[in-house]
Specification:
Elements lengths: L8 H35 L4 H26 L6 H28 L1
């Protein structure tokens, strides 16, 4: 079952331009990927482990740094809820301060 969507000629022209822009961006993305893999292939053409190491090295260093810093600081990471509560408390304190300042200015 198929159906037709009726669009005006202006909308059809916009859709064509958008589709052309999408095709062009995908072409650029694919060419960048092809260039990347071609560079890796030529760099590590004689060694499979070299290619594998180029992928694993950043991942392993990230894991090592995460483990080292988690043991070095031994602090719980504040959750978004804790940060939101802190921000709310600070805003309430600031509003109370401004209210008291305004009232005191009226009294004086």
């Amino acid at each position: 079952m198929s159906f037709m969507i009726h669009v005006s000629p202006e909308e059809e022209e916009l859709l064509k331009k958008a589709w052309t822009a999408y095709d062009w961006s995908m072409l650029k993305f694919n060419s960048k990927l092809r260039f990347l893999f071609q560079g890796l292939r030529t760099r590590y053409r004689k060694s499979f482990l070299g290619f594998l190491w180029s992928l694993l090295s950043p991942l392993l260093s990230m894991v090592v740094l995460a483990v080292v810093f988690s043991f070095a600081f031994k602090q719980d990471i504040k959750t978004v809820k804790d940060i939101g509560n802190y921000a709310t408390e600070q805003l309430q304190k600031r509003a109370e301060y401004k209210k008291n300042k305004f009232i005191n200015s009226l009294v004086d």
